[in-house]
Amino acid sequence: MENKIYKLKELINESNNIVFFGGAGVSTESGIPDFRSKDGLYHQKYKYPPEEILSHTFFMNNTDEFYKFYKEKMNSLKYEPNITHKKLVTLEKTGKLKVVITQNIDGLHQKAGSKNVCELHGSILRNYCMKCHKFYDAEYVFNSSGIPKCSCGGIIKPDVVLYEEQLDDETLEKSILEIQNADMLIIAGTSLTVYPASGLINYFRGRNLVLINKDTTPYDNRANLVINESLGKIFEKI
Hints:
31% helix; 9 strands; elongated; alpha/beta; 238 residues; three-stranded antiparallel β-sheet
């Protein structure tokens, strides 16, 4: 393991345009549960499957049930950034790390101090009235009783990408451009099985591809360096 951490440091030192692409594994060490691990949300028992609850159709047709689940399971306001979030901020300050691309919706990268973050799946921190588009923060939504409503009477919807919804075009295009221009891509805490996010790896043309994840991914054979370990154990040493 020490050899791999040394190699990672070497690759970072020789790179000047690094992109970090992270998934749920970045936030689990802050205490936020992921979806697909054996202890994740998909393996817990609910009245409806979580992937059904977190769909556009379910939100529109069963808004009350959606918000019961959302408020109980998706509220990350009480969590704090971990060592990985913090080390990425340090790396950004050196000028080497150009952007963090994340599949997470918890806002912890910004809370840690990252300036340039592409949130592929949106954020719980932004919420909008479906009628008049007025903005509401996460505290308003999570502290509301029942379905959060706007002052105009409209239903408030979190700015998160639900199943059946498209990723934001502008965010996706920026992410693709950043990956195309990178000389190093660090992919961490993601199984790379969820499309279209997993397809972003195909836009990388740089020299150094690093995959850090507890489990293997379908793209391990493409990488210059694969580390199967928790992110915290790696990032505390770089």
